[in-house]
Amino acid sequence: MRSLLSGLLLATFLLGGCERRSPVTFGAANSLIVVAPERLWEAVRDTVMSALEPTIRTVREERTFEVTHVSPLDTAWLELRKFRQVILLGYEGDSWLAPAMGGIDSVPEQLPAIIEVGEVWAREQAVTAVLLPGGAGREAVAEIVPELHALLDERYRTYVRGRMFTSGVDEGLRRELLRTAGFGLTLPDVYRHEQPGGTQHVFRNHYAQGSKELRRGITIDWRPLADSISPRELMRWRNSATTAFGFEQEVAPEAPDVRRLTGPGAGALEVRGAWQTPAGDWPAAGPFISRAVRCPKQNRMYLMDAWLYAPTESKYEYVIQFETILNSFTCGDDQ
After folding, report:
1. Is the dihedral of CA 94, 97, 103, 108 positive or negative?
2. How many CB atoms are closer than 10 A to CB 10?
3. What is the pLDDT of residues 188-230, one digit of tens each?
4. Computed over its alpha carbons, how large is the radius of gyration of the chain?
5. pTM
6. Which candidate, 252, 266, 249, 260, places its Cα nearest to that of 305?
């Protein structure tokens, strides 16, 4: 009976490739459906999960992707195959892979390999096949999953960058900042620019509806150029500068992450961590990114700080938004 049921489910799955596609996919852009036979999944589960669900520290450790496994013989797969992102993990020649692989002209000679299939069961869907050589197990999967994560992460970042500029790019604001403030910054056309006084500029994007509240704040400030600045000094600077938003922030006691940038903004000191309101104040907390950037031709050192308050939201998408905005910073003389 079990064999008959499995055969019927497999037949239904194979015929599914000929069904009329759903209008659109469903599911969050960072939710991953991983389809793999049970025996293979039991052998590689920990390897796959650790590679595809790395965490970032916001207020607490948060997974960047959410992985859900399903067997190709599970009835749940008939609905989950319409998800936005589907990963097919199996062996070359597996019959259950046929609906997805039918449109592929050729399979790479060297396995394991990643094949971006595209739309299969729904529009706007990204189906990605991970093909293993026959009999391969955890070692072959461990070899390929870092590449798979890099592909998925860049795909998600591209999605976030496109989504954040849906309202448009505030090119007028960038030109105005270059003309009057001495620096350039590219923001979506939903931030309100204010200059509280002196050298400080703040950009805010607050949203509240019902129980949902989302606050995003960015601060740019500058002081005369110094040879260097310590992480502790940078934190004191950011804490004093963020009071322009109307409440006091402190860096949470957990040790922040400190590094020197090597990509966009190379050479800048960056500190990432969590902020919180002082004891006795209205309780709030969230992640922040602070950078100290030297602009020698201007004889300036700039503070760039971005902070988030989103108590009911996952925060990885907003961290990518902040990275995109901060990476757009230029000294005025670099134009």
Report:
1. negative
2. 14
3. 999 999 999 889 999 999 988 777 889 999 999 999 999 889 9
4. 24
5. 0.85
6. 249
pLDDT-derived band at 255 (thresholds 50, 70, 90) equals: confident
pLDDT level of residue 267 (50, 70, 90 thresholds): confident
Which residues are registered as beta bridge partners of 289? Answer: 272, 306
Neighbours of 236 (CB within 10 A): 13
The separation between the first and the last C-alpha atoms of the chain, rounded to the nearest angstrom, is: 72
Q: How far is CA 219 from CA 29, 181, 225, 327, in A?
A: 29, 13, 18, 14
Burial category of 199 from C-beta neighbours within 10 Å (exposed 0-12, middle 13-18, buried 19 and up) = middle
Q: What amino acid is encoded at 49 in this protein?
A: M
Neighbours of 203 (CB within 10 A): 21
The residue type of 248 is: E
For 47-61, what is each residue's pLDDT tens digit? 999 999 999 888 888
Strands 85-91, 31-35: pairing is parallel
CA angle, residues 35, 115, 34, in degrees to nearest 5: 15
Residue type, 304: M
Report the relative pairing of strands 192-197 and 200-209 from DSSP bridges.
antiparallel
Tokens 């969050």 found at: 28
Q: What is the mean pLDDT of the chain?
A: 88
Amino acid at 143: E
**Cβ-based neighbour number of residue 326 at 10 Å:** 23
